[in-house]
Design brief:
Structural class: mainly alpha
Number of strands: 0
Distance between the termini: 36 Å
Largest sheet: none
Order of helices and strands: HHHHHH
């Protein structure tokens, strides 16, 4: 699993520009307030109607995440696309993922096991805090 996280899948900015131009403008489809995965399913259905078998749900999620950051007044960046959706899902792949109740040191150790650094940790954990949370997850 670590290799696929670090090496990617040959993604690049503009991957769909000729295959399915609609794919990289999904911000108009997905980011009209994402309330659940049904929005991703709707985007996938619209893209399948235009470009059957081309755009992965993984890319839809990556583009939607970028657009959610932009809507939250964060930076905008080009998203490399071209991911392929997995065909198998194993619960054991998630056994060593960092948990929200773990110390920063433990999270850093787990990120390092995937070839990721502290900046990656801050970026990914920060991205997961957009929205709502509860005071119990903070200490003063």
């Amino acid at each position: 699993m670590a290799a696929s996280l670090v090496e990617g899948q040959g993604t690049r900015v503009g991957f769909y520009s000729s295959l399915c131009p609609l794919a990289e403008s999904i911000d108009q489809i997905v980011t009209k307030i994402v309330r659940g995965y049904e929005v991703i399913d709707d985007a996938k259905a619209q893209l399948e109607a235009s470009c059957p078998g081309i755009v992965s749900c993984a890319d839809i999620l990556a583009l939607a995440a970028r657009d959610a950051v932009v809507l939250a007044k964060g930076p905008k960046w080009d998203v490399p696309t071209g991911r392929r959706d997995g065909r198998i899902s194993l619960a054991s792949d998630a056994d060593n993922l960092p948990g929200f109740t773990e110390s920063i040191e433990e999270q850093k150790r787990k990120f390092a096991a995937f070839g990721l650094n502290t900046q990656d940790l801050v970026t990914l954990v920060g991205a997961h805090t957009i929205g709502t949370t509860a005071c119990q997850f903070f200490s003063y």
